[in-house]
Amino acid sequence: MEGIPNRSNEEQNTEEVHKVEITVNSVRHHVFPGAYIVSTFKEIIGVPESDILEESHDEHFKPLNEDEKIEVEGGEVFRAVLREHEVEVTVDNKKHHVFPGPYVVSTFKEIVKVPAAKVLEEAVNGELKLLDDSQTITIQGAEVFISHVRTGGSSK
Amino acid sequence: MRSPDELEELTLICPGALEMKEGDVVFILLPSLKVSGHGKIDALLCPQARDGYTTRLFLARQIPGHGNNWTSHRILDRAWVTWSWNNVPADLRLVEILANHLSALR
Questions:
Q1: Which of A69, A147, B28, B40 has a Cα-to-Cα distance from B60 of 20 to 30 A?
Q2: Mutation site for B-interface testing, chosen from A88, A93, A129, A143 by largest number of B Cβ within 10 Å
Q3: Are A20 and A75 in contact (CB under 8 A)?
């Protein structure tokens, strides 16, 4: 047919990208080869955001930073590990130690022993931000929270 | 008088928080308090009953469109305004009292 370039089979085959096999926690996964940001790669292979992803190099595992770029060619061996170090947050002027990572606010309240009936606010640069129980917050360390009962009303 | 711990906690929100007295009434001066969506405003927290209110938060300026029945007051030789917002108990921590008053301005 005129107007359509006639490509050889060899040319067409080079455009197909096949998945390659990698290992994560001794389980085989199949992913497309190429460059990935670690945080995105963790999502693809089903590693919780709160875990640290490590890659095996010369039989030693090296932790990968969340924003690091990795090149996947196939055959790589990874493992996901719980973060070992908790970070300190302040809740109602008391120090708590929690693992960094994302939390649903209602779950975070349970962990830091804030009654479900109280609302939680985060002090961000001196400004109070009301947190909805269903929203997700990311703990990095040094966050400051206050909880309080919801009171007050416009008087007539 | 409020405990040093309560005042220290308040400094996480407003580093310049300062306890002051006028007669028998205790006030907490909150210079350049960050009010969500309204910038920095000098504020004065009264954490005890006054004028028929269990606690009150006074501001250096009114916030249009928020709060009802704004009134003017002169406290500690300075002009303040506040809105009608009652029944925030005085037995809460200072930061809880403040948070509940600020919630009315969201």
A1: A147
A2: A93
A3: yes
